[in-house]
Each structure stands twice: as structure tokens, then as C-alpha cells.
Amino acid sequence: MPHHLRTLAQVSGEVRLAVEDPVTLTRVLNALEARYPVLRGAIRDHDTLKRRPFLRFFVCAEDWSHLSPETPLPEAILSGREPLMIVGAIAGG
């Protein structure tokens, strides 16, 4: 997670979550927000649950920000070999 979200949630380093199958980005974000309620609305819009601008989701080094959040995550994420990364996007030229 970006530094400002880790600060908001009062966590440092990686966050590990238990998520039921099928593991999708939606389910991961639901679990993250359930564990850290202060993040509700910070990553996704409260009403639409769409990704906030300037946040990106990276899965196995690929940008999944525009894929359906219902796409099942790969086994490398499920096993913990690869992290699912929420990254603050950089704007500008």
C-alpha cells in the first residue's frame, strides 16, 4: 500500500489477509476494508466501489487497474509468492 494509506491504517510492511475462494480483487479489498475500516472510501469510492483516481493495482508485475475486479487472482498471489500491490500513481509530465 502507498505510504499514506499505511499511515492511515497504522500498519507497516506487508498486510496478509485470509480471503475465501474465488479470490478476486473485490474480495481482497473487502477483506482489507473489513480489517482496517479506516480504509473504506480511501481505495474505492463509497458508493460505486470503483478504484480511486491515482491508485493502481499491480498483480504479478502487471497493471490490473482497468481489469474487472472480479477476475480471479493468479496462484502466485494466492500462495504468497507474489504480492498484490496497491500503488499510488504519479501524475505529471
Largest sheet: 3 strands, antiparallel
What gap, in angstroms, lies between the N and C termini? 23 Å
CATH homologous superfamily assignment = Beta-grasp domain
How would you sum up the global shape? globular
Mean pLDDT: 93
In order across it, which strands form the biggest sheet? 2-1-3
Q: Uncertain runs with pLDDT below 50, 5 residues or more?
A: none
How many helices? 3
CATH hierarchy, class: Alpha Beta
Structural class: alpha+beta
State the total count of DSSP E strands: 3
Strand fraction equals 5-15%
Computed Rg: 13 Å
Question: In the CATH classification, which architecture applies?
Answer: Roll
- CATH third-tier fold name: Ubiquitin-like (UB roll)
Order of helices and strands: HHEEHE
Describe the structure in your own words:
The protein has 93 residues and is α+β, with helices and mostly antiparallel strands. The chain has one domain (3-10, 18-88): Roll (Ubiquitin-like (UB roll)). Helices cover 24% and strands 13% of the residues. It has a 3-stranded antiparallel sheet with strand order 2-1-3, with no helix packed on it.
